[in-house]
TrEMBL record:
Residues spanning the signal sequence: 1-22
Cytochrome c domain span: 24-98
SUPFAM superfamilies on file: Cytochrome c (SSF46626)
Organism of derivation: Polynucleobacter hirudinilacicola
Protein's recorded name: Cytochrome c domain-containing protein
Length: 103
């Protein structure tokens, strides 16, 4: 009986103390891009510059939603072991640095 009285208060206080959505960490997104993405993209472009994949004229990424899907696909297909918040950080960094889509 005590647990049923305690649980709703605990749940409510936990929800109120935790941020609903953490702001993306751009520094983390950049670090992940440099550590896990750049070399593969440099190889794909054939020019040794991993950033070129983001700035090419025939980019497949046309919106933030596309960017999220591409980052998630790379994470899954290449087994990068990124957490969802890491994916969000990478998306935020790439969008700010290269794409500049409106959120």
């Amino acid at each position: 009986m005590l647990l049923t009285r305690f649980l709703p208060a605990f749940t409510l206080s936990t929800l109120l103390s935790a941020p609903a959505f953490a702001a993306p960490d751009l520094a983390n997104g950049k670090a992940i891009d440099q550590q896990k993405c750049y070399a593969c993209h440099a190889k794909k472009t054939g020019f040794g510059n991993g950033d070129m994949i983001y700035t090419r004229s025939d980019s497949k990424v046309k919106s933030v939603a596309n960017l999220k899907r591409m980052v998630a696909m790379c994470n899954t297909e290449l087994r990068l072991d990124l957490f969802p918040e890491d994916e969000a950080d990478v998306v935020a960094y790439l969008n700010k640095q290269f794409y500049k889509f409106k959120p």
